[in-house]
Each structure stands twice: as C-alpha cells, then as structure tokens.
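User: I'm curious whether this sequence folds into something compact or stays loose and floppy. Could you predict its structure so I can see for myself?
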Amino acid sequence: MSEKRSEYIEKLKNKLDELNSEIDKIETKADQANTEAKIKYEKQKAELRSRQKDLNEKLESLKMASDSAWEDLKSGADLAWEALSNAVKSAKTHFE
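Assistant: Here's the prediction. I'll summarize afterward.
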C-alpha cells in the first residue's frame, strides 16, 4: 500500500471517528429531548446510520483495493464522507 493511500485512509478513518462521536452526542441530546424532537431524530437516525455504513464500506474497499483501483474508489469515499458530514450537520441543528 502506498504511503499516500495509507495517509488518506488514516485521515478518512479519523474523520469518520469524529463524525461517529458527533452522532453519539446527537443521540444523547435526542434521548433527553422532548417527544417531538425525539420523533424528528428517529427519522434522521436511519439516514445517519445508512450514510455511516456506506462510508465504512467505502473505507474497507479502499483498504482492499489494488494500487491502481484505489484512486477511483477515493472519489466515492469522498462523496460518502461529504454526505455523512452534511447529514450530521443537519441533525445537529435540531439538537443544539
């Protein structure tokens, strides 16, 4: 695995860990919120978990990809990270 690829994977993993922490914080706030807010969060939770799973799958694909294929997979991982990041930001606005 090239150094550039290893650095990218590590950076993406760190970003994912940060977003996972944010999701946990949102869940805690949602659990303490009123019923209406909990209902809104439950709707967003499925999207967050789906996007989280997608990014985890992309990360695993990057780890397993050949040196020639990883650049192609990188753009998909970038899009998955952006989608999860935006979903987390959206969810945070409801619970801050």
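Summary: Residues 3-32 form the longest helix (30 residues). The mean pLDDT is 87.
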